[in-house]
Amino acid sequence: MRPRILDLFCGAGGAAVGYNRAGFDVVGVDIAPQPHYPYGFYQGDALAFLAEHGHEYDAIHASPPCQAYTALRTLSDRKHPELVEPVRDLLRAWGGPYVIENVPGAPLFNPLTLCGASFGLGAMCRDGVWRPLRRHRLFESNVWMMGGGCACSGQQPIGVYGHGGGGSCVRGYKGTLTESRLALGCEWMTRREVSQAIPPAYTEWIGRQLLDAIEVAA
C-alpha cells in the first residue's frame, strides 16, 4: 500500500504530480476551486483541514501563499497573509515528516533551494534558443534532504509568469503558454496555473527522500 501525502495550498497540482511519481497517493486541499487538480481534492481552509485530518496522512506538504515574501510585494498596498509560521506550528504539533515550500525571502528554516536548470528543465523557444528554467524554490523539512545545486547562472532563463501570449524579449524572455508548460512539465495547466506552479521534478526529488525517511522510521 502506497503512503499518503496531504498537499496543502495545492493549486493545480504541480507538486502533487511529483509526489505521485515518487510513490505517494496524494490528496490536495485549496481554498479556491482547482478543476485541473489531477488527484483527490477538497476545497476548504488548508489549516483547518490539517488540524482535523492530518492524522490520516503519512507526510504533509504545504505551499502557503508566497505574495507576502516576494520582491514585488512593495509594489502593492494590498496586505497579504503571512502563513509560513502558523503552518509550521501546526505541522510540528502534528509530528510527522513535512515539507514547507516557498519563494526566496520566505522565513524558512535551513531550506533546501532547488533550481529548474539543475533538473534539465527548460524549453526550446520559438526563436530557436534553448532556455533553462530558473524558478528557484525553497523547501524546509524536518527530514534531512540533499539538493541538486543551481545550474542556471550565465544563461538567459525562460520567464514563466503573468498573463498574455508570451514570446517577448523586452525584459528577458517570457515563454509562451506552450513553452512554459514544457519548461515546468505541467502540460495540463492554464497560463495562470503554470505561472504559480512547482515543477513536478522538484517534488519527485523531495518525495523520494521523504519515502526513505518513512521507511527508515518504520
Write out key terms for the chains shown.
218 residues; 6 helices; Rossmann fold; alpha/beta; 7-stranded mixed sheet
Main sheet: strand order = 3-2-1-4-5-9-6
Average predicted local confidence, pLDDT: 90
Task: Tell me what portion of residues adopts beta-strand conformation.
Answer: 15-25%
User: What is the percent of helical residues?
Assistant: 25-40%
CATH architecture: 3-Layer(aba) Sandwich
- Radius of gyration, rounded? 17 Å
Task: Please give the alpha-carbon distance between the first and last residues.
Answer: 14 Å
Number of helices: 6
Q: How many structural domains?
A: 1
Number of strands: 11
Structural class: alpha/beta
The largest pleated sheet is described as: 7 strands, mixed
Helix/strand order: EHEEHEHEEEEEEEHHH
Write the CATH fold name. Answer: Rossmann fold
* CATH hierarchy class name: Alpha Beta
Q: Give the CA-based shape.
A: globular
Low-confidence stretches: none
